[in-house]
Amino acid sequence: MRAALAALALVAAPALAQEADPKADFVADNLVAVFYHELGHALIDQLNLPVLGKEEDAADILSVLLVDEVWEPEAAQEIVANTAYAYALSAEEGEGDDPMYWDVHGHDMQRYFTHVCLFYGADPENRADFAASANLPEERAATCAEERELADESWWTYLQPLADQAPGTAISLDAAEDEFIAGVISEEIDTLNERFDLPQEITVDIESCGEVNAYYIPDESRILMCTEFAEFLWERAQAADL
What we know:
With 242 residues, the chain is of the alpha/beta class. It is built from nine helices and four strands. It has one domain. It has helices spanning 2-17, 22-46, 55-70, 73-93, 108-121, 128-133, 138-164, 179-195, 227-239; strands spanning 171-176, 202-207, 214-217, 222-226. The radius of gyration is 17 Å and the shape is globular. Residues 13-19 have low confidence and may be disordered.
C-alpha cells in the first residue's frame, strides 16, 4: 500500500510542481471529482437509469469519464492522480482496522486502482507512464481499455442525448458558505451547463452539514457539498506535506 501511495505522489508531482499551491490543487481536484460523483447519483435518479451493480461504483466511473471529457489531458491526469492519491491516503489511515464490508462504497484501494485503470484505459499508449508510476498491475492494465470502453458505452448511451440538446435545463449554485469551494464548483457548473441539458434543474448548496461528506438529495434535486469535507481535504493535504 505504501508503494502505491508513494507512486501517486510522484504521478501528481510534475503537474503540481507547476502550480503555486499544491495543497489547493489537491483540495480543488478532489472537490471536482466528488461533485462529478454526486452528479452521477443525480443523473441515475433523474434518468431512472438501470444500475447493474453498486450505484456508488457507477458514480465513481462517471466521475472519471467527466474529468476526461471536460478537462485537457494534462489537467485531467492531475485530477485523477490527486483523487486516487486521496483514496490511497484513506487506505493508509485505515491500516490495521477491520474493513467495512457493510459499506456501499468499495474499499479505498479498489477505488484507487479503478480510477487509475479507467483513466489509463482511455489512452493506453500515451498514459502508460501514468499507469506504471501508479503501480497498476499488468494483470489489471491488460483489461483497462475494455473496462473504459464498456464504461463509455454504458454512460454515453444516456449522456449523449443530453449533450445533443445542450444548453438547456441547468445546474445552479444556491447557498455558498465557503468561497474556495464555491469558486471551484462554479467553474464546473458553468462548463457542464454548456455541455449538457439535464432532465430537471439541479441546485447545489455549499454549507456546513455536521459531517465530512457530500450528498445528492433526490426529493429536492439538490447536491449538498459539506464545508467539512473541504476542511478535511485541507487537513489531509497538510498532513501529506504536499
